[in-house]
Amino acid sequence: MSPHPNNPSPANNAVPGLVAADMFTPGRAGDRRVLVWEGTVAAPASPLPWHSSTPVEVFFHTGHGPATQALPQEFTRQLDRQLSALSLLSVQRLLEGIRTYRTQGRQPNSNTTRKARKNFMKDVMRELVDEYDFSEQDAADKRDEINDALVVLHESDQVTFGPSQPGMSVGGYPSVGYEPVNSSVGSQGKPMSRALEEAAQAVPAERRAGVRILIRAVLTDSPELAKQLRNGQAVLEPRSQAQRAAISPRAPPWTPGKVAADIANNTTPWQPPTSPQTGTPPSQTPDTQPRQQPDPAAPTPRPSPSASSPGWDPDKSAALRRASFPHPASAALRKPPPHNHTPAARPHTNPQQPHPELDR
């Protein structure tokens, strides 16, 4: 897998913070650069055809403050996983999920999910001790520091999937992500849900079990532009066939080994990687992204609010997701020298503001 791209330098004439990654590629809207996720090339394969050749456009921004705006790659990573899972649902299943969420709200995490998360962090600690020579105390401190900043991710979010438990990713571990970014994405879910529900209702009832919604997602670093796009006050500029067919590398899955390697390299899994020569993010022009076949981590489906309904076969969906989200090859992670010194004061990684909805 090609290296996950990093923040471009000002010389690239790119909007600070926006990086083409995780199947998002450059576009323009409101006279600004944006990133675009095209369902025609980014979504997993499925036996269900698209509902239309015209995609439903949904819009996101990278938050209202510098803490999240500095992490565009965590936005593209979380959004890509969510949009990929969402694109596997039939129109009928999508409508059921949206309507069930509206009447029942969110389902809290189960004991099984909490145990899976605990086991994930336990394996992170074990990796630090066994592979990087951390002391038990240092490893426990780092585990707790990282754990405080993470949440288990729903893919897709309950606002569109309905009340459910999070799915599992590579190795049976829960899919996790940085909480402030997840909170920002989740707070923008209702406008997306409304747009998708409107498009789904326009599909004739007899077709809904046999088609899925074609989605195009736009990500901007401007909350105001996202609002204008949702209200029709700004539009995405026309895209050429080459632009619509372009893709960008996906990030490696967050396994205990990947998280432990980041900790041992004195960073966090949600921070963009840095150049070992300069200690700063290397430059990459966003308009010249390497092309690469999709290879996301594998989320598995959760029980649906109405699993017996037409158009929803759990066994078929499980097989489809396994085929559509093949487990990626292990990422090439630089292994640091043994941890045989007193660690420096650790950086503050906990969110600066409390977030009411910690698990989406």
Automatic annotation (TrEMBL):
<feature type="domain" description="Novel toxin 15">
    <location>
        <begin position="73"/>
        <end position="216"/>
    </location>
</feature>
<feature type="region of interest" description="Disordered">
    <location>
        <begin position="236"/>
        <end position="360"/>
    </location>
</feature>
<dbReference type="InterPro" id="IPR028949">
    <property type="entry name" value="Ntox15"/>
</dbReference>
<feature type="compositionally biased region" description="Low complexity">
    <location>
        <begin position="276"/>
        <end position="295"/>
    </location>
</feature>
<protein>
    <submittedName>
        <fullName>Putative toxin 43</fullName>
    </submittedName>
</protein>
<dbReference type="Pfam" id="PF15604">
    <property type="entry name" value="Ntox15"/>
</dbReference>
